[in-house]
Amino acid sequence: MFPHDHNYRLEVIPCQSVPRSPQHISKAILACALVFIAFLIAASASGRACAEVVGPFEVEGPANSYTYANSTLTISEDGVVIKGMTDAAAPAGTVVVNENVREVGIGSYVRIQSLTVKRSTTFIVDGPGNEIVQLTTARADAIGGDGKITLETGNSAVDVFNSATVRVDGTIESAFVWQKATLVLGPNARVDGVITALGGILDLSQVTMGKPIPVQGVSVGNPTTTLAVAAPFGATDLHQLLNYQTLTVNDAMPVYENGEQIGTLNPDGSFNITATRNVSFMGLNGVLLTTETVPLFGAAHAPDVTAPDGYRFLGWSKPFDYVTEDMTISALFEKVPTAASGSEGSSSNTERRAAKIIRTPRTLASTDDTLTVPIAVTSGAATISLLTALTAAFIRRRNVAA
Known about the structure:
The protein is mainly β.
């Protein structure tokens, strides 16, 4: 009900039918202008400026919260974000963070040659491709956010939290990893102190097996959080990757290689491998003999093979003492030579071989009688016996004629 007219009717008029008078347009423009002015006043009150070019960096933050002089960006108040570089080819810059600054933001592909922190600061990383070559700090610094950053060398401890990813390619004092963060150790990394990983991922997948990274101690696992260890494919023990003096495993945690969970970490640093592979052994003409499930990196056991008649078993088509994938292995056979294809120089074989008989007419010289005699096409002792028989027959025939 309306207070002045109880019989007043409310009608809904389609938007397109509402008249657009100049007065309405003027009021709309005025309202927009007031909103914009209010926004500018609020921004001015907060002291925040748009991102601007500061040396090689693009920087955003409150007015008077940073300066740039002598090729160095100096951050003196909270709220500053180094958004990126002015150019992809711009050289890495120098940054100094004063002691009263509690937090600094880092965007994407920010390259800092030298970062000096005069007390202790939390860096919130939002994007990928960030790099700090040299970190010099008075106390341990924290790195959080959802982005990624590479640290060449640092003189103090690094605390990695949130979902941030920190890669270490040089020497740091120590590292603490928790929540959903990731600490990546490159092949040339070194940790003078202790690695404490209570959550997230301890990524050792880029470490060269047989060249473990020096570290004083390792403490991993927490029953209340989730932690995983990533290792290079083929690793079976933490000692292959980290040269530590002490190891504390507070809870069984999964071990991943090439993105596959291959097992868990044992208290002594060895990997309890639970992943398996299937190995199939094939006989003659591709007949399946058996399929065996083998632990990853383990050895398969070949079945007994009976060679078919006329064949000799030679071995298997490939080795199976170190299984890394599903395999199909075939038995190899060769035909056994038969007696007919043996050596023809043997007298025993020659004598056992049947002679081919060819009957040929011959005329005797003294009687002109035709005599058909068997001529055996053979050799050796059989030939001598045949000649002896022919000679005797000839003599007998001659005596009869006389």
